[in-house]
């Protein structure tokens, strides 16, 4: 049996089908450790992938236990589900305003949609521990600090089924994951249907392991190969090309600038091959891709991308950068309304 070896692929053909070509025919294919070039993975390769993941850290210790010491005058904790393969180990946790008030604007912060992106999770917890209570005077606040807890423990991008949770939040139910379905059900339980939210910040990282592991794995899943590109040094945001507010983006970037450096873009004026539309900002079709940042239909929504592998930042700074992004967004809303 022979297979057509793809002579060119898109950056993320599997995930989004729209990015510009990255691999050209003249560039040699690098084989990922699982599967064969030209053959998309079947159940056997997916099982092989799952079997070689290992647990690196405890979600209960590093996430759930930290939700036991918050300002419970203003906040409440709720379990909104559990990962079905091990419910005791992976309860799905949300924290939200104790006095949810229909007259206040509502805001959502999500972290750990990609479990390996640590500051997304720890930054959401830091926000709950520090500034969230004081913003409860003005906003209904909901925080889901770790959408994908199995990925957090394994330091993986996908869930156990080789599915990327951050492509599963669109209206196409066939692309839904256990993680996205649980989040949607929780938002529904708050009485907060799509379009009722004012703000959503989805907290992510761009890491060196994107290039060495996660993007090659994604290409291999489709039977394709991946050409490495440059990981940008610095913070940036990914906003929605259909719902892009320049003033809002600026407020987020200016706030983060006080904590860490902003990615300047490469010599072509791009970040991950997307053109910078303003300082530290690229825009993508968030709704079409089914990104988590599309789940609320909020007027203001963006995805943060902290770069934790920079020699110029500490883990603590990365967490504070996530908090600064949320604070910048909230202060923008307070000052413009
Ligand atoms: Zn991510």
UniProtKB/TrEMBL annotation:
<feature type="active site" description="Proton donor/acceptor">
    <location>
        <position position="305"/>
    </location>
</feature>
<dbReference type="GO" id="GO:0004181">
    <property type="term" value="F:metallocarboxypeptidase activity"/>
</dbReference>
<dbReference type="GO" id="GO:0006508">
    <property type="term" value="P:proteolysis"/>
</dbReference>
<keyword id="KW-0378">Hydrolase</keyword>
<feature type="region of interest" description="Disordered">
    <location>
        <begin position="1"/>
        <end position="27"/>
    </location>
</feature>
<dbReference type="GO" id="GO:0008270">
    <property type="term" value="F:zinc ion binding"/>
</dbReference>
<protein>
    <recommendedName>
        <fullName>Peptidase M14 domain-containing protein</fullName>
    </recommendedName>
</protein>
<comment type="similarity">
    <text>Belongs to the peptidase M14 family.</text>
</comment>
<dbReference type="GO" id="GO:0016788">
    <property type="term" value="F:hydrolase activity, acting on ester bonds"/>
</dbReference>
<feature type="domain" description="Peptidase M14">
    <location>
        <begin position="55"/>
        <end position="330"/>
    </location>
</feature>
<dbReference type="Pfam" id="PF24827">
    <property type="entry name" value="AstE_AspA_cat"/>
</dbReference>
<dbReference type="InterPro" id="IPR000834">
    <property type="entry name" value="Peptidase_M14"/>
</dbReference>
<dbReference type="InterPro" id="IPR055438">
    <property type="entry name" value="AstE_AspA_cat"/>
</dbReference>
<keyword id="KW-0862">Zinc</keyword>
<keyword id="KW-0479">Metal-binding</keyword>
């Amino acid at each position: 049996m022979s297979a057509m070896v793809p002579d060119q692929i898109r950056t993320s053909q599997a995930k989004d089908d729209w990015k510009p070509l990255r691999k050209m025919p003249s560039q040699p294919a690098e084989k990922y450790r699982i599967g064969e070039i030209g053959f998309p993975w079947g159940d056997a390769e997916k099982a092989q992938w799952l079997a070689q993941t290992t647990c690196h850290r405890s979600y209960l210790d590093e996430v759930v236990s930290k939700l036991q010491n918050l300002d419970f005058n203003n906040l409440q904790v709720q379990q909104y589900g559990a990962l079905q393969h091990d419910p005791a180990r992976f309860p799905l946790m949300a924290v939200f305003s104790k006095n949810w008030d229909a007259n206040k604007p509502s805001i959502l912060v999500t972290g750990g949609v990609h479990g390996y992106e640590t500051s997304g999770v720890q930054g959401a917890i830091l926000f709950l521990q520090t500034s969230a209570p004081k913003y409860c005077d003005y906003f209904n606040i909901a925080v889901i600090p770790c959408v994908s807890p199995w990925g957090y423990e394994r330091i993986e991008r996908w869930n156990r089924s080789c599915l990327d949770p951050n492509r599963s939040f669109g209206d196409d139910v066939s692309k839904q994951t256990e993680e996205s379905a649980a989040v949607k059900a929780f938002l529904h339980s708050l009485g907060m249907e799509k379009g009722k939210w004012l703000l959503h910040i989805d907290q992510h990282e761009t890491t060196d392991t994107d290039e060495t592991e996660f993007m090659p794995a994604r290409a291999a899943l489709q039977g394709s190969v991946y050409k490495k590109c440059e990981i940008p040094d610095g913070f940036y945001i990914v906003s929605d090309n259909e719902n892009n507010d320049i003033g809002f983006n600026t407020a987020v970037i200016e706030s983060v600038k006080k904590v860490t450096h902003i990615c300047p873009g490469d010599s072509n004026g791009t970040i991950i091959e997307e053109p910078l539309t303003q300082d530290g900002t690229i825009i993508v079709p968030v709704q079409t891709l089914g990104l988590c940042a599309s789940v609320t239909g909020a007027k203001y929504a963006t995805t943060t991308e902290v770069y934790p592998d920079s020699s110029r930042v500490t883990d603590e700074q990365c967490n504070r950068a996530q908090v600064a992004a949320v604070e910048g967004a909230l202060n923008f809303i307070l000052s413009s309304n």
